[in-house]
Amino acid sequence: xxxxxxxxxxxxxxxxxxxxxxxxxxxxxxxxxxxxxxxxxxxxxxxxxxxxxxxxxxxxxxxxxxxxxxxxxxxxxxxxxxxxxxxxxxxxxxxxxxxxxxxxxxxxxxxxxxxxxxxxxxxxxxxxxxxxxxxxxxxxxxxxxxxxxxxxxxxxxxxxxxxxxxxxxxxxxxxxxxxxxxxxxxxxxxxxxxxxxxxxxxxxxxxxxxxxxxxxxxxxxxxxxxxxxxxxxxxxxxxxxxxxxxxxxxxxxxxxxxxxxxxxxxxxxxxxxxxxxxxxxxxxxxxxxxxxxxxxxxxxxxxxxxxxxxxxxxxxxxxxxxxxxxxxxxxxxxxxxxxxxxxxxxxxxxxxxxxxxxxxxxxxxxxxxxxxxxxxxxxxxxxxxxxxxxxxxxxxxxxxxxxxxxxxxxxxxxxxxxxxxxxxxxxxxxxxxxxxxxxxxxxxxxxxxxxxxxxxx
Length: 457
Ligand code: NAD
Known about the structure:
Layout: H1 3-15, H2 22-38, H3 40-51, H4 55-81, E1 84-86, E2 95-103, E3 106-110, H5 118-129, E4 133-137, H6 143-156, E5 162-164, H7 169-176, E6 182-186, H8 189-201, E7 206-209, E8 215-218, H9 224-236, E9 248-252, H10 256-269, H11 285-294, E10 300-302, E11 306-307, E12 312-313, E13 316-318, E14 336-342, H12 345-353, E15 360-364, H13 368-377, E16 382-385, E17 406-407, H14 412-418, E18 420-428, H15 443-452
Parallel strand pairs: 3-4, 3-6, 4-5, 6-7, 8-9, 8-15, 9-14, 13-14, 15-16
Antiparallel strand pairs: 1-2, 2-18, 7-17, 10-13, 11-12
């Protein structure tokens, strides 16, 4: 169906109020669950073709989280969509007040390629739970995964309710010409700005899930063996192509040597090698070339090999790194980990505060005060203490960026809220009316107004 016709059909469907019915929403979420389950093999094969993602990683980082997400939404949908009573001000006596959650309408979701199922379908789950219709454009970069998503959704859902539109920049540009009631985007800061500008023309609200350079602080009193294990896994999962991967490490000078030795050992133990079938490829030649150029041979502590034919880059640690290095200019988004040594925590915090706000921040320590200092002084999307990445696996936490790393959040109830409007309603009784606000206004009425309004309580 042509894009404009599709949008019009979805608007008509939304206006029919069908999606406002909670039973309908639950049925659609169950249908999505079943559709994914019936097609697990198709999804696994497609993503393997795109960038060699293993079955284990595909289940644990893509399909499993989607099942959890659907279950959580089904379980909570009644609670989240319930009308909530709130207090009524004295000026509105006699009356009651309540908040009515309502779906926004016709929504447009842009997925991206690095977790193509998760980043396309998790926002769609939230949009459906909140009662919207959805047009989803997965990323053309992960072509096979995108085809699999389109096949599954377009075979199981009515297009006027949930449709996948495939294509690259030209299709995205065409979609952005029209008015939507919400646009949800995951991807780069560069494209995020294009989306924001296009949405502004229609006053369409946006959620922008972007990236940034996410630091990991390794302080001198951390549990080093646990720290290294968690950090190395988080960095090299998906060959570093994870928006919340630790982009670089700030290690205290006193433990630099031990940290580097253990990190190398952990990489060896993990079988993260070009030959291993569990080690993910770089998504395309363009990204491979960009990443290969970031490896400064004079700074390689371990790894460093890049094989264009298989689009694989060894897990690489760069030591003696500094904020001035080329690798520190933009988000790396690949298996290269620069290690910067620091001595003074205040100085390094000040440096990070001078940079764009990161999507994530991690701190490995066993003491309270530096942990609190980092969490309160640095602005970042979300993060973890003594772990990395795993905050994303708790759907009770909102997930999103701040400043350059994003606008808005989702996951769990935050996702439901992202795709909802909260209508405030005052309902007045008619048995009684105070004359205070009506003309003529007298000195006596002013005295009463001052008594009622503006007092500190
Ligand atoms: P991208 O920004 O190039 O593409 C994302 C989406 O935008 C795709 O659907 C694509 O088709 C579309 N698009 C591309 N060009 C467009 C244009 N000119 N106009 C309109 N739409 C267009 O993706 P990328 O750069 O490969 O993604 C990597 C970035 O995404 C990294 O910064 C990463 O941190 C970030 N990211 C963030 C999250 C998150 O949840 N916060 C998740 C994954 C990736």
